[in-house]
Automatic annotation (TrEMBL):
Domain Dihydroneopterin aldolase/epimerase: 4-117
Reaction catalyzed: 7,8-dihydroneopterin = 6-hydroxymethyl-7,8-dihydropterin + glycolaldehyde
The enzyme's E.C. designation: 4.1.2.25
InterPro entries: Dihydroneopterin_aldolase (IPR006156), FolB_dom (IPR006157), GTP-CH-I_C/QueF (IPR043133)
One example of a Gene Ontology biological process annotation: folic acid biosynthetic process
Keywords, alphabetical: Folate biosynthesis, Lyase
Name used for this protein in its record: 7,8-dihydroneopterin aldolase
Family: Belongs to the DHNA family.
Described purpose of this protein according to its UniProt entry: Catalyzes the conversion of 7,8-dihydroneopterin to 6-hydroxymethyl-7,8-dihydropterin.
Lineage: Bacteria, Bacillati, Bacillota, Bacilli, Bacillales
Keyword Lyase set for record: yes
Xref: SMART domains: FolB
Source taxon at top rank: Bacteria
Pathway the protein acts in: Cofactor biosynthesis; tetrahydrofolate biosynthesis; 2-amino-4-hydroxy-6-hydroxymethyl-7,8-dihydropteridine diphosphate from 7,8-dihydroneopterin triphosphate: step 3/4
Gene name per UniProt: folB
Amino acid sequence: MDKIYMNGLSFYGYHGVFPEENKLGQRFFADLILEMDLQAAGTTDDLEKTVNYGDIYSTVKEIVEGEPKKLVETVTESIASALLSSYPLIQQCTVKVTKPDPPIPGHYDSVAIEITRSRA
């Protein structure tokens, strides 16, 4: 399967278990791997044979900057579900959502959730 990579999409959202996370918000990053057959797009140079990166970005933005969720797992699952339901050409997607500044003690770069979902 061919792949489109979208890396380091950046958003500001209000997800988290603690009330201050829902009030103050924080940065979130998303990385996507979209798997589909890209041969027709590559041979015809026709945007209709692939997905529009801008539309994908808007879909992810709507979720990450939208209704607050308690869990990053829920945000990640929502993105994968929206991509598969909104873009019929996508056969499988891997979605990674990174929360660089979670309110947990210790030294670390970030925490992240990565899931892979396919069409049934």
